[in-house]
Amino acid sequence: MRFDPWNPEFAAHPYDAYRELRETAPVTFFEPTGQWLVARHRDVNAALRDRRLGRSYLHVATHEEFGREAEPEFQEPFWRVIRAGMLDVEPPVHTRLRRLVSKAFTPRMVQELRPRVRSIAQDLVDGFVERGGGDLLAEVAEPLPVTVIAEMLGVPEGDRHLLRPWSADICAMYELSPPVEAQHTAVRAASEFAAYLRELAALRRKEPGDDLISALAQVVDEGDSLTEDELVGTCVLLLNAGHEATVNVTGNGWWALLRNPGELERLRADPSLLPTAVEELMRWDTPLQLFERWVLEDTTIGGVDIPKGVEVALLFGSANRDPEAFADPDRLDVGRTDNPHISFGAGIHFCLGAPLARVELIESIGALLRAAPRLTLLAEPSWKPNFVIRGLRSLEVGTA
Questions:
Q1: Which of the residue ranges 69-73, 101-105, 132-136 has the most confident prediction, judged by mean pLDDT?
Q2: What is the pLDDT of residues 78-121, one digit of tens each?
Q3: How do the domains of the chain map onto residue ranges?
Q4: Which of 63, 165, 255, 295 would you label with 367, given CA atoms 20 to 30 Å apart?
Q5: Is domain 8-398 annotated with CATH 1.10.150.20?
Q6: Chain segment 235-244, per-residue pLDDT in tens
Q7: What is the C-alpha separation between 281 and 368, in angstroms, rounded?
Q8: Phi and psi for 326 in degrees, rounded to 5?
Q9: Rounded distance, CA 238 to CA 353, Å?
Q10: Which long-range contacts (CB under 8 A, 24 or more apart) does 66-73 make?
Q11: How far lies 17's CA from each of 45, 261, 343, 388, in Å?
Q12: CB-based contact 124:382 (threshold 8 Å)
């Protein structure tokens, strides 16, 4: 099968096509999207760290100067929110935002969250087991990161049901050539979430609490602080990046373990393997299959000259199955220690939330291993049609 991101069969199993790309055309132009596909681990890894490539080009040129068409006017509210966060900007703006956010969202804060994450995961799993199972995605994988990020941000419990739909609708914009209807839905979700956060941030500025929005609202470094737009954009990013990927690693990961019962039993017998198992599950069925960069200067990737002004599509899912970087890459190995996967990215845009994602995954998978030793698949799962942010529709399992 050829690279075909809109084909459900390809989205369900892209790895044969990736192998063909790595072996025959590791850097190749993909006419339908006008992008250069990059398939090998060494090239993807290098591109993520190459400052001649950027998540945006607007810090060096206008759309017209870069030879691109401006986004449709109706998308302006979406990009105003997204570009106020650090994901879609470049230095010096990115450097400043990351420095300020890192003063509030610290590794120490994440470690202090671990007992609460463990408690939330255990409560969700206990209820799931009492009911005899069900949809693991809807009842465990999705509520955990939403609850954690909502508590972390200080979102009142009565409002938390709003977060998951907003996140899913916003992230649909990151698919390749999303339908116009999905674009309008993403714009509406970004606008609604931003308006909600502005109100919450205003309240926290007046009455600070023990939450991340309060911390972000008060963070100051050498007289510099986050603007309201930057605070909102940061919170939107934390929800989207911290939620969608964690949900899909959980679903994809359990489906991988159920298809590899020997590795599942190995993990049950030795829970100390959980940290390496989480890294392996992120590698083996990567939740973010593709990440894009703009070429800011003429460059060469994998021996192929690529001109300024085009976009490269870095195939994370392919890089994470590259035999040049991983021994026996198509084999799931929960004890794999030599695992330079790039599921969290690399370079200046390396995922700031990686420590929190790891805590959530270790705690939720660990709770299920302990409480559901007879977890069984009840129905063959199907994949969502999305390719870039790739995950299952549901995962029906029994626990009795």
A1: 132-136
A2: 999 999 999 899 999 999 999 989 988 888 888 899 999 999 99
A3: 8-398
A4: 165
A5: no
A6: 999 888 878 8
A7: 15
A8: -135, 130
A9: 7
A10: 66/294, 66/309, 67/309, 68/309, 72/183
A11: 20, 26, 19, 15
A12: no
